[in-house]
Every structure is written in structure tokens, then in C-alpha cells.
Design goal:
Layout: H1 5-17, H2 20-27, H3 31-45, E1 50-51, E2 58-59, H4 61-88, E3 93-99, H5 101-118, E4 122-128, E5 142-145, E6 155-161, E7 164-168, H6 170-176, E8 190-192, E9 201-205, E10 210-214, H7 224-232, E11 237-241, H8 246-250, E12 255-256, E13 262-263, E14 270-275, H9 277-280, H10 283-307
Parallel strand pairs: 3-4, 3-5, 8-11
Antiparallel strand pairs: 1-2, 5-14, 6-14, 7-11, 7-12, 9-10, 9-13
Length: about 300
């Protein structure tokens, strides 16, 4: 027969109410049904759960040991049933989502249409901004951020990996020379996603050490796509996120510079989803977060394979 939730519920209720009559009233069944379910449970687990030699029902040592398990099992079953109801129900409502501009355009925007087709009752409002938007003040449901220091009072979930590379056009390297060590970058025109003067000091990691180098350039931009366009125009060596370079590297318009060295940036190597505990309890927000975690993982694997 196997153990059923009805058996577990009868056992837990009798244990908590210290009597079959009160348990039957709580469960809305007869006393005989409660007694039968407890007896069936005892037969299944081959143990006596209650001592019936006194007027007051009391747990045996086996019953005391089994009670905590039975309670947890009932809670887990209830949570699973609620989750399935959520999945079966048609999700609806608006989700306000924010993400960095370039990553949102190049990566995120490609994943959202499939989610919206799957859930026709949901509306997504995508706000692309490189500034750190305030989740509470601006009514943000999910914020996808390029940051290594998320706020400790938010729910944090890593979503996607971002690699950093040094690239230049073959024509630029033919004219200016190809660097063979980080120190050689000091004599080249270098460009990166620039926000402050500290960004002119690059740090490169070869897997065992980090080497700083002071670089210079005639073009500064607070948008990585603008830096990518300058690199494609042959202006110099650019430090860029890999998702902006995949196609150009594949077709030869750009090539890697110092490929054995990895740039270390203040942005880190992950896009992280952050939200408040309250907004995460909203089913449509959880559904989008779960979808993106899976979709971006698959997309990242495909990108890695293509660039290998």
C-alpha cells in the first residue's frame, strides 16, 4: 500500500492533540477512520507509535522519533503541491526588469521573447541602464547587475558568466606590433569601458599572478559598445566583455591580444540577479528568474563552445 499523507496527517494530529476524538474533529473524519489510518501507518513502518494502555494517548519512543519526520514530510508535500499549482496556473502581471545597457541589448534581449511566448499573460518592462537603480524607489522586480558587491539585504543569484578579453584589428597590430607581454601595452593605444581615471590602470592575470600596467588612449567611453566600435575601426587595443567580441573574433575582424592573460576588472565575471525577499515570493518573478538561469546557462555554454 505504501505510506500516504492521510496516514501521516492522522498520526501527527493524534500526537499533537493527544487523542483520537480531537484529531478526528480537526481532520473532519470519524474516529474510526483516524484509528484505521494510524494502524495502517504502524503496519507500514512496522512500529508501534502510540501507547494505548492508558486513557490518555501517549507516544512511544518510536512515535517520538517518527513525529519530526512526519511533520517535515507533510510540509514538503504541501510545498510541492503549491509549487505545482503555481506552474499549472497561467501567470500574469507586469515584471519590471533592469539590466546593463550593452549586456541587456546583446544577451538578455535575445532570451526574453521565448519567456513571453511561454507566458502570454505576463508583461515585461525592460529598463536598460548602467547606473545602479534603486529597487524599492523605482519598483524594480528583478535587477540584473554587473557587480562584485551586491547589497547584503537583497536575495542574490548568479545568472551568467562574462569573460574579459583584449582585442584589436589585424591591421592595427600589423602597423603597431603585437604585444608579447603586459608591459608592452604601455606603448599602445588602449581603450576600455571607462568610468574614472583609475580605469587607465589595467590588471592582467595569467592564472598565477596579477600584473598591473598603466595604459593610455585618446578615446574614453562609458559604454562598452562604443569601445567595441572603436576597436573595429582600428583605433587601438580594447579591453572588452567577450559577448561583444564573439562574432568579430570568429570572422577575423578582431583578434585576441595576449590571449594567455585575462583582464581583471572592477565589474567582475558574473551578471548577478538581485531582488528583495518579498518580490521573490511573487510567482511570476520566480518563474522569470528560473527561466533566465537555465536559458543563460545554455547560451553561455554555446558561446564557450563556439569560441573554443
Amino acid at each position: 500500500m505504501g505510506i500516504s499523507t492521510d496516514m501521516l496527517a492522522a498520526f501527527v494530529r493524534v500526537a499533537e492533540r493527544r487523542g483520537v476524538t480531537a484529531a478526528a474533529d480537526d481532520l473532519g473524519v470519524t474516529k474510526s477512520v483516524v484509528s484505521k489510518r494510524v494502524a495502517q501507518l504502524e503496519a507500514e513502518i512496522k512500529a508501534t507509535l502510540f501507547s494505548r494502555s492508558t486513557r490518555r494517548v501517549a507516544l512511544t519512543p518510536a512515535g517520538e522519533a517518527y513525529l519530526d519526520f512526519a511533520r517535515r514530510a507533510l510540509v514538503e508535500v504541501a510545498q510541492a503541491e503549491e509549487r505545482l499549482r503555481d506552474l499549472r496556473a497561467e501567470l500574469s502581471g507586469q515584471i519590471r526588469l533592469t539590466a546593463p545597457v550593452s549586456w541587456g541589448q546583446k544577451v538578455l534581449a535575445r532570451q526574453l521573447p521565448a519567456f513571453l511566448q511561454r507566458h502570454p499573460g505576463i508583461e515585461v518592462e525592460l529598463l536598460l541602464a548602467d547606473r545602479m537603480m534603486d529597487i524599492a524607489d523605482e519598483r524594480i522586480d528583478l535587477a540584473l547587475r554587473w557587480t562584485t558587491h551586491p547589497s547584503p539585504d537583497l536575495v542574490v543569484r548568479p545568472l551568467a558568466s562574462v569573460g574579459w578579453v583584449l582585442v584589436a584589428t589585424p591591421a592595427y597590430l600589423a602597423a603597431a606590433g603585437t604585444p608579447t607581454e603586459p608591459a608592452a601595452l604601455a606603448s599602445h593605444v588602449c581603450m576600455c569601458y571607462w568610468r574614472e581615471s583609475a580605469d587607465d590602470a589595467w590588471r592582467l592575470n595569467d592564472g598565477g599572478r596579477v600584473q598591473p600596467v598603466r595604459v593610455r588612449g585618446r578615446f574614453h567611453a562609458n559604454n562598452p559598445e562604443a569601445v567595441a566600435e572603436a576597436a573595429l575601426a582600428g583605433l587601438g587595443i580594447a579591453q572588452l566583455p567577450d559577448y561583444l567580441c564573439t562574432e568579430a573574433l570568429a570572422d577575423g575582424r578582431l583578434q585576441r591580444v595576449l590571449p594567455e592573460w585575462t583582464p581583471v576588472t572592477s565589474f567582475g565575471t558574473r551578471i548577478t540577479a538581485v531582488t528583495t525577499p518579498e518580490r521573490l515570493r511573487i510567482t511570476r518573478n520566480r518563474a522569470l528568474l528560473d527561466y533566465l538561469a537555465e536559458a543563460l546557462s545554455v547560451a553561455g555554454s554555446a558561446t564557450d563552445a563556439a569560441s573554443a
